[in-house]
Amino acid sequence: MKTKIAVAKGDGIGPEIMDAVLRIFAANEVELDYEFVEMGKSYFDAGHSTGMTEQAKETIENLGVLFKGPMETPKGKGVKSINVTARKVWNTYANQRDFRSLNGVQTVFSKAGVSVNMTIVRENIEDTYGGIEHLMTNDVAVARRIITRPGSAQVIRYTFEMARRKGYKKVACGHKANIMKLTDGLFLETFYEIAKEYPDLQAYDIIVDDLCMKLVSRPEMFEVIVLTNLQGDIVSDLCAGLVGGLGFAPSANIGDNISIFEAVHGTAPDIAGRNIANPTALLLSGISMLRYMGFTANAATIENALLYTLEQGKHTGDFGDRSTASLNTTEFADSVIASLGKQSSEGGVFSQPNFAAHGNKVQRPSENKLTVTNPDVKEEIMGVDVFVEYTGQPAELAGLAQTKLNNQFKMVMISNRGTQVWPTGSVFTELVNQYRIRLEKQEGIKLSQKDILGIVAELSDAVKVCSIEFLMNFDGKAGYSLAQGQ
Ligand code: NAI
Question: Considering the entire predicted model, what is its pTM?
């Protein structure tokens, strides 16, 4: 019996490149059945605010694998990107992108004889992609960056498992924990915690700016890199550039139950409908999907055919030797089909699985396991950061706040854009109309949440409060950062 997956052709060039890829699959007799689902621009336009029909959602949740073409997010209609929504709703927490130099695809590195072969895993749910943003004053916008211990653990464990399966030796964690000590710090701490379970793999960390510099100067140094969402987004596009651009960048969004395979590029509206788009990125994503589903022999044959085609100098209009005629999408797919059974001079690609082979049965989760935490950790309320809107000078604000304090609290500092401006500061620090007042508990006092809300209510009589943040200790360790200069 054939295995069934959900397929959404997408918008713009989506249908053209998807048809090309499915034709290649058929020519290699891939034992897959497709249920085509209704998603994308026309479903936004028809009033489905999620960009897909209920039936599409149900089909994908039943089948567990979605192979999708790019989809357009209508501008200015207040709708969220269906691509991002799908990744988040179905908890595809690991975004895996494999980058390798391809014979026939010239880059500065291929010309220099440097071969790139690495995998980036990007956390796919958390970070600033929660989209939790607020204007706190007319001048000050704030985004919440959410990094969680279980969310980090999920994607990091996936990365080590994948690295082991693919025979890599080293796993790097890219981060900025030198600046974001709590958020990136938690990701990094979790990385080393999980690394202990994989003593056969060398685990190391690298600050993301240094990583970018090394990636563009010595890309051959790296094998597997795991990163938080935003940094991973930027670094993985940088890596796409190393191997020839977006036309060669596949992406797998992996979850425990549902996984989505797509190209990194968009709908290319400038060339849509002309049958000239490059189907390679979607084909590479499809090859990953075949491996994920356990069709490793098909994956190897099709990948070998693609490599052979590229090596022959066959190309669509967006890459390759300009002095030779480019093929259209259909002709390029025909070339791959004609090359089935051939191997490139690089030798055959591995037929080992890229992913833990996934059946076609989705396990409906009966409980949410990520809420489970360590109940033994002792928490203590240490005080509160109160964010206020104020246009005067720091000393005046301190004087105002002081009049509202009771004997439970002491004011320890005021900062502006994260830099301490009271009790000490520099006249050269420029100020905006939002300050943070840090109140800490007096010696020997035990604070409740009500005490905090009470003092904030008092303060609001003197100054406009924008938001508050509790200062907490966990097992005696501060769960909040110091201000610059504190
Ligand atoms: P894009 O990736 O669609 O196009 C950027 C440039 O690359 C264009 O010049 C295009 O012609 C070219 N290009 C892209 N894919 C190509 C291919 N396979 N063959 C040949 N040339 C190709 O990015 P853009 O223009 O920023 O976005 C267009 C639309 O796509 C937007 O509505 C955006 O929201 C959507 N989008 C969807 C994604 C997804 O479904 N995962 C990802 C990125 C964008």
Answer: 0.91
Q: Which CATH entry fits the domain spanning 379-478: 3.60.15.10, 2.60.40.3880, 3.40.50.10810, 3.30.70.1570?
A: 3.30.70.1570
**Cα(209)–Cα(465) distance, rounded to whole angstroms?**
36
Q: Does the pLDDT value for residue 76 go beyond 70?
A: no
* β-strand partners of 380: 473
Tokens encoding 268: 């290319």
Top CATH class of 94-254 equals alpha beta
* Ligand 1 pocket check for 247: Cβ under 6 Å: yes
Express each pLDDT in 442-475 by its tens digit.
999 999 999 999 999 999 999 999 999 999 999 9
* Per-residue pLDDT band at 78 (split at 50, 70, 90): low
The answer to whether residue 130 scores a pLDDT higher than 70 is yes
Extract the runs of DSSP E, i.e. beta strands, from 147-247.
Answer: 170-175, 202-207, 224-227
> How many angstroms separate the alpha carbon of residue 68 from the centre of ligand 1?
14
Give me ligand 1 centre to Cα 266, in Å: 3
Fold match, 1-91+270-347 / 94-254: yes
Per-residue tokens: 362: 């989705």
